[in-house]
Amino acid sequence: MFNKIGIIGLGLIGGSIAKKTRKVYPEICIKAMNDRNKAAIKQAIEDGVVNEEGNTIEDFSDCDLIILCAPVKTNIVYLEKLKDICKEECIITDVGSVKGDIHKEVIKLGMEEVFVGGHPMAGSEKSGYEAAKDYLLENAYYIVTKTANSDNKKVELMEKFAKSLGAIPLILDATEHDKCVAVISHVPHIVAYSLVKLLKDNDLMDETMKKIAAGGFKDITRIASSSPKMWENICMSNSEAINNYLDIFEGYISEIKNAIKKDNSEVLFNTFTESKNYRDSINSNFRGAINKSYDLYVDILDETGAIATIATILARKSISILNIAIIHNRDFEEGVLKITFHDEEALEQAKKILVACDYIIHEKK
Q: Which domain holds residue 35?
């Protein structure tokens, strides 16, 4: 599909694309640059993932595909520098979670025929090349955005490339995209950060709230562990859509608040029922804007070696555990032991093995 791919910004997404590309297309030459972390490039070359290091933008003039994987506003700066050096047949794309600003710049620079926007809807609370995985994009929607003057052949190539990485390509208008991610990703992150602030600012003197915040609270605020700098950047880049949906969300909160004040149980019940039914109808087979956590909850006896026994059983079957924790607050959890896995395959294997060993397990929907 491409002879040489350039990746500018070898972090979580750039690194994951590079690793999967190497796996699928071992013959492709991959050139990468990371101004903020030179060690990442060195490591990627040692891993056999990257072939060449690019020291300046000019070093990418021989690439057939250039993927901008830096923060949104930095990508725009790189875009202008690439205008006069890339080949006519080259495709320039990005992986930014906001598309409006970069598309405006593309039109301003007259680069519509060479640029095809992209947003792989996968991620992690961790960042950097060291957190990159070759399976990160698998079964994740890969949004492809174009303009009225986009080259349709290049759009088709980007669709094929995304599909070859195990992702599910979906074409959207840039404005539509920014509205979608504002609702399903950007506002939820803001809510998560706000909930953590609510806990921090209103905890008791002995931090009792923090102590019992495990389980449900920690799960629903997991995304508040994401990069503050990245989310500052996203909020500034997609401010119009985010503010619009925050206003709507505030309206919903006010309705619930008023219903509680007036003891209106009917409004509360109907609101919660409507939301529950709609949430249960959301397809969980695909990965969305917020990275899925692969968790099992296991009932175990309070006895010496109980956790070690489970870890040993899984280790003997070569199943790697990402994290393991005891749930002290079980208001919202059925199992007492929470085990997190790297991917769905490991989770499914672990579930079968533990059930066969007569453990009672619970899985979140």
A: 4-172
